[in-house]
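Sample intake sheet
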Amino acid sequence: MKGTMFDKLLEYKLQTSKEQWQQGEMVSGTLLVKNNGTETATIDKIQTILAYGNLKKIRAKDPKAFEVQELHVAHENLSLDAGEQKEYPWEFKLSTNCPITDKFASLYLLYGSQNNAWECGQLQLTIDLHSILQQFMQVLQTYFRFKVQSQKFKKGFTEIKLLPPKSQELKMVEHLLCQLSTKKDVIEVKYIFSMKILKNIEGEMKVQKEKKEFKQQFTPKQYQLFGGYFNHDGILKAIGEIIAQSENKFYT
């Protein structure tokens, strides 16, 4: 991706190494600054900032729209002759639990020489789930036929809302919230089933709304096979155990 920003006679060009990333990957690129003036220009600092931006606040130009995650200062007290340009590399290592891009917020790159986000260039990043979590979700969708309706990042985890397949076993399930995170290579999953349960209340059968919650953890030995391949069979069995518990309780 590319971004360009002008600060009077100074031109900044940001270049990233790719178009989108997954949680845990390295975001890297270069920042070029060029003096388009006819005199020498002095710049206090050249920097690239990784920031988390609230999309609603960004549209409103709220001064609190961005939260700085990390700062990379490439050069300080830079002097550029007329027409001269210099290019600097930068990189940020994303955490395995960094925010994904959703319809509410996203990670951004802010670049230039200013600390005020509105005086910097802004480039929105596209961040997807960690590759291991994507493979986990693929098992849930492919083998159990749940369909993703939406996903959003919350503090410390990604929450994915799924709709159940049309089946007799799961007809009482309205939706499933799957909360995913990784901590020191351990996958943590929380399942929250929203259901309509048929119960006998004072001799009369009534439908009650309830939530059923289950938790699982998977170490690398559980979700990976020799050679780093994803353990589809093991994860399939583990998810199946959760689904089976839910099926048994839908008719209580």
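Comment: Residues 248-252 have pLDDT under 50 and may be disordered. Residues 2-128 form a domain with the Immunoglobulin-like fold (CATH 2.60.40.640).
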